[in-house]
Amino acid sequence: IKTIGVLTSGGDAPGMNAAIRAVVRVGISAGLKVKGIRRGYAGLLEEDIIDMTAESVSDIIQRGGTIIYTARCNEFKTPEGQQKGADILRKHNIDGLVVIGGDGSFQGAKKLAGLGINTVALPGTIDLDITCTDYTIGFDTAVNTAMEAIDKVRDTSTSHERCSIIEVMGRNAGYIALWCGIANGAEEVLITERYDHNEQAIIDNILQKKKVGKRHHIIVNAEGIGDSFGMAKRIEAATGVETRATVIGHIQRGGSPTCKDRVYASIMGAKAVDLLTEGKSNRVIGYRGGEFVDYDIDEALSMTKDVDQYVYETARRLSR
Ligand code: ADP
User: Fold this and answer.
1) Mean pLDDT, rounded, for 69-85
2) Which one of 83, 115, 208, 246 is separated from 178 by 20 to 30 angstroms, measured CA to CA?
3) Residue bearing the CA closest to ligand 1, atom 12
4) Which atom of ligand 1 is found nearest the CA of 101?
C-alpha cells in the first residue's frame, strides 16, 4: 500500500477531526501518501479529493465537526455508484481507505472492499448505536453536552416547581437518554428500546412525587419517543403541574470533543492505518472489554446489542 484515503460519512460527530488527524499523521510517518475525500461518498463520486499533509491537520484536534465535511449519498447505494467510486479511487492511486461513520457508511466500505479497495471503518456517531463496540467517536462529548444542558433546565425547573421534559438525541438508540437519566437524576427515562407508552403511569408517578414533596420532575425523552411537546400538554392537563418541553437538538452534535473522544478517536485512527499497512481489508475497529479490537465488517454488521438491562433498572431504582 502506497496511498490511503480518508472520508467521513453520515452524521458528523465530535472527535472525527481527531481521527482524521491520526490517520494523516500516522500514515505519513509510515511513508504513505494520504488523501482526503471530502463530503463522504458523495464527494468521492464527484472526485472531491485533496492531498493531506501533516500541517493540513494542525489545530483541529480540539474542533468539533469534520474538516473534510460529511454527506449522505443515495447513488453510492447502487452497484453502479460503488463501481464508479472504486474506479475513481484507483484513478487516484488510493489502494487503502479509512471510512469514519455509522452502520450505513460501513455498508459502503464493505462494498468497496468487495471491489478490491482495502477498507477499514471507524465507528463515528454520537448515538453509540453501533453493535460491535462499547464506544463510538462523539458519544462522550454529546452525552456531556446533554447532561450540562439538563442541569441548567433542572435549576429553573426546581425554582418554579415544574415538570420538565427534555428531549435528547437518539432516534433509534436511547444511550444518551439513559446516561443522562442517571447523570442528571431524572425521575423518568423514556427510550424506544423499553418505553411501553403507558403515559398514565408517568402521570401517577408525578402526582405521587408531588405528595411526598419533590419540587421538580425531570423526564428525559430519547428523540425516538417523539411528541415531547404534546406529552407536556397532556401531563400538565392531567396533573395540574406546569410542564415544559425542551428539545436540545443539534447542540449535541457539535462542540469541542472531550478528552476521551480525542484520545480514543486518535488511537482508532492510528489503528486503522496499522491494519491497512498490514494488508488487512473489510475491517471495522471497535472498543470492547477495555481493549481496541477489530472485526470483519460482515461479522460486525450481523451483531446485535441492546441497552444493558442492569443499567436501565438502576436508572429506574435511582429515580424513586
Ligand atoms: P451512518 O453511516 O451514520 O449510518 P447513513 O446510514 O446515512 O449514515 O449512511 C451514510 C452513507 O453511507 C449513505 O448516504 C450512503 O452513501 C452509504 N451507504 C449506506 N448504506 C449503504 C449500502 N447498503 N451500500 C452502500 N453504501 C451505503
Assistant:
1) 97
2) 208
3) 105
4) 2
pTM for the model? 0.96
Closest atom of ligand 1 to 125 CA is 3
Cα(10) to centroid(ligand 1), Å: 7
Does residue 141 surpass a pLDDT of 80?
A: yes
Residue whose Cα lies nearest atom 10 of ligand 1: it is: 10
CA of 104 to the centre of ligand 1 (A): 3
Residue tagged 433546565 (cell numbers): 153
Task: Outline where DSSP puts E strands in the chain.
Answer: 3-8, 33-37, 49-52, 96-101, 118-123, 163-168, 188-190, 217-222, 243-247, 283-288, 291-296
List, for residues 11-68, the tens digit of each pLDDT value: 999 999 999 999 999 999 999 999 999 999 999 999 999 999 999 999 999 999 999 9
272 CB-near residues (< 8 Å, 6+ apart): 19, 23, 98, 120, 122, 285
**Confidence check: pLDDT of 86 > 90:** yes
ipTM above 0.85, yes or no: yes
Binding site residue list for Mg(2+):
103
Q: How far is the CA of 166 from the centre of ligand 1 (A)?
A: 29
